Inverse folding.
């Protein structure tokens, strides 16, 4: 997340994550009143993904999980295109399709459990969930309490209205929308604002919203000047906005997304092997391309990528 202040490590800046603003997105539409409404019915059909149980990997599962035949996964929609609900209320998305493919490799049924974002890691630690899969950034801080299995590389991307000229590295005095408790809310935008003040310029007016849709609506309706979110989220918003949202600058501060597991859990190496199997077999690429997020695909999955 581009330059939130000198001396601040990029991985530290993604401390709470969930980079923000899953901007309305799954198909932005305007009502007569000018509001934005999610129409999340257009879920891509993923082709080229034929996955079956791989005994050499599945046989390494922790006995309790193997016996249950299921993997309990905590997630927090809406965060399109990674995790959001379709018209029937089913949780779908890039993360969901990828996790389902992992489940096939392991011979497990994936059971998604919706939860508040900030409660997912504690639930994994407590054993309520086996895995947290909700666009978590793998950071050194988080690795102190949980382990991560990496599956994607995301940065930060700002968005603006088409006729504006926003520079994320020089946004002093502007109104910038963020989703509350995201890395943009906690660290990125505040650090940029502090740098403005230190340079004798007006601070950034950070405006927080409870949902990603609200942030995107605010930008489109002119209530804020720009928004800041994870690169796949912003890119998806742009692609679905019918030209009402465009990029502001380039992607910056890339860092790995990871699935969260309990610290020291024997599940981590099993998930890592399953993920690598999908990478090597091309199924991962096919899923990423179907959702339009192939820009952040990785070649190697690792445990605790922030440390690596």
């Amino acid at each position: 997340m581009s330059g939130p202040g000198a001396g601040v490590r990029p991985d530290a800046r993604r401390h709470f994550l969930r980079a923000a603003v899953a901007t309305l997105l799954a198909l932005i539409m305007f009502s007569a009143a000018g509001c934005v409404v999610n129409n999340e019915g257009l879920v891509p059909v993923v082709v080229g993904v034929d996955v079956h149980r791989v005994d050499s990997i599945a046989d390494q599962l922790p006995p309790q999980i193997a016996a249950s035949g299921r993997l309990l996964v905590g997630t927090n929609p809406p965060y399109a295109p990674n995790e959001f609900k379709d018209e029937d209320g089913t949780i779908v998305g890039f993360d969901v399709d990828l996790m389902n493919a992992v489940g096939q490799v392991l011979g497990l049924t994936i059971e998604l459990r919706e939860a508040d974002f900030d409660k997912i890691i504690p639930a994994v630690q407590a054993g309520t969930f086996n895995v947290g899969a909700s666009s978590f950034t793998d950071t050194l801080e988080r690795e102190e309490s949980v382990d991560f299995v990496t599956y994607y590389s995301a940065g930060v991307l700002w968005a603006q209205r088409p006729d504006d000229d926003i520079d994320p590295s020089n946004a002093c005095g502007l109104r910038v929308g963020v989703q509350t408790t995201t890395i943009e809310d906690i660290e990125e935008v505040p650090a940029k604002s502090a740098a403005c003040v230190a340079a004798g310029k007006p601070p950034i007016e950070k405006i927080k919203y409870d949902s990603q849709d609200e942030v995107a609506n605010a930008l489109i309706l002119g209530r804020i000047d720009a928004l800041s979110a994870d690169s796949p989220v912003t890119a998806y918003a742009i692609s679905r906005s019918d030209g009402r949202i465009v990029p502001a600058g380039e992607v910056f501060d890339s860092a790995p997304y990871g699935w969260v597991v309990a610290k020291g859990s024997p599940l981590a190496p099993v998930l890592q092997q399953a993920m690598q199997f999908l990478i090597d077999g091309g199924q991962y690429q096919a899923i990423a391309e179907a959702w339009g997020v192939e820009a952040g695909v990785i070649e190697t999955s690792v445990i605790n990528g922030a440390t690596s």
